[in-house]
């Protein structure tokens, strides 16, 4: 750890002890640090053999996949395989339990852009968690015949059985469908109870206006900065007692510089920690 990161780590340690509340924001970097790597070629070859054969080398290459480039069969073959790995092969990752232990006894709230359900599986109370971009567990109707959403895993397990491994397409009879109108289903960002979750998050932030608030951002980059990163900067400006700690490291192997920078207009209230989220959490627990 460099000197600046060490110094900011100590400030964070103190702030966690003394703050009235803790607001945690978590992005893909936290799950990557915990062991869900979208860059791991060995994992990809083992669990995504069809796609490996098609020339892909890691899950990260598929992040920007565009609907129009893939048939509906290919899309569901991919989602069924990917979500089966994330939700049913990968166990609850211990780093999440460590983060939960770090927050034990504190008045905290977590907002995440991760759809992988690791907070839920790690035993975080759902009334203190908002999954801003929904989760892999929910699907809805592609035709939006109604506002209902439903659990995705049973139909994804079924889709998995209907993948043609030559073409890597899910066969027609295995495609997840809307139980109300029969149209093909789609993964949705907003489950039916989305508004309630958002309201709990908003209430937590609004009622912290006069408090000493420790804002801890873990592994949030620039894929969707409007979800956590920019709002956290705004909260820090608006709440006089707030301090923002931005934990974000680079990955030299993929030429990723990391995004620990904090806004210049918050010199005494926003602190970068250019380090791995897991190592920061473990260092904070080693008191
Ligand atoms: Zn429908």
SSE blueprint and pairings:
Blueprint lengths: L2 H16 L2 E6 L1 H7 L6 H7 L1 H5 L18 H18 L4 H10 L4 E5 L5 H4 L7 E3 L6 E4 L8 E2 L1 H9 L1 E2 L4 E2 L14 E3 L6 H13 L6 E6 L10 H10 L3 E6 L22 E4 L3 H9 L2
Parallel strand pairs: 1-2, 1-9, 2-3, 9-10, 10-11
Antiparallel strand pairs: 4-5, 4-8, 6-7
Bound molecules: zinc ion.
Globular, elongated, flat, extended or rod-shaped: what is the shape?
globular
Reading the helices and strands in chain order gives HEHHHHHEHEEEHEEEHEHEEH
Task: State the end-to-end CA separation.
Answer: 17 Å
Give the neighbour order of strands across the main sheet.
3-2-1-9-10-11
Question: How many whole angstroms does the radius of gyration measure?
Answer: 20 Å
Number of strands: 11
- Ligands and ions found: zinc ion
Largest sheet: 6 strands, parallel
The overall average pLDDT, rounded, is 92
The helix tally amounts to 11
Strand content: 5-15%
Q: Which structural class do you get from the secondary structure elements?
A: alpha/beta
Q: In CATH, what is the class of the largest domain? A: Alpha Beta
Determine the CATH topology of the largest domain. Rossmann fold
Number of domains: 2
Helix amount: 25-40%
């Amino acid at each position: 750890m460099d000197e600046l990161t060490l110094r900011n780590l100590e400030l964070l340690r103190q702030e966690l002890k003394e703050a009235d509340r803790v607001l945690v924001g978590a992005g893909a970097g936290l799950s990557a640090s915990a062991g869900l790597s979208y860059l791991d070629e060995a994992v990809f070859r083992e669990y995504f053999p069809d796609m490996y054969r098609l020339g892909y080398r890691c899950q990260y290459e598929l992040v920007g996949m565009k609907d129009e480039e893939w048939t509906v069969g290919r899309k569901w073959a991919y989602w069924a395989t990917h979500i089966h790995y994330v939700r049913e092969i990968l166990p609850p990752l211990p780093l999440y339990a460590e983060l939960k232990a770090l927050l034990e006894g504190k008045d905290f709230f977590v907002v995440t852009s991760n759809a992988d359900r690791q907070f839920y599986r790690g035993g975080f109370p759902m009334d203190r968690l908002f999954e801003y971009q929904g989760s892999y567990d929910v699907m809805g109707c592609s035709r939006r015949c109604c506002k209902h959403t439903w659990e995705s895993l049973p139909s994804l397990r079924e889709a998995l059985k209907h993948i043609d491994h030559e073409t890597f397409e899910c066969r027609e009879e295995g495609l997840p469908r809307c139980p109300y109108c029969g149209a093909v289903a789609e993964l949705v960002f907003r489950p039916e109870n989305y508004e309630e979750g958002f309201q709990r998050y908003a209430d937590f932030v609004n009622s912290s206006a006069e408090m000493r608030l420790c804002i801890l951002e873990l592994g949030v980059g620039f894929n969707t900065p409007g979800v956590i990163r920019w709002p956290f900067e705004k909260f820090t400006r608006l709440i006089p007692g707030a301090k923002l700690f931005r934990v974000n490291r680079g990955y030299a192997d993929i030429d990723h510089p990391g995004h620990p920078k904090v806004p210049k207009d918050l010199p005494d209230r926003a602190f970068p920690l250019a380090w791995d989220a897991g190592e920061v959490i473990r260092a904070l627990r080693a008191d």
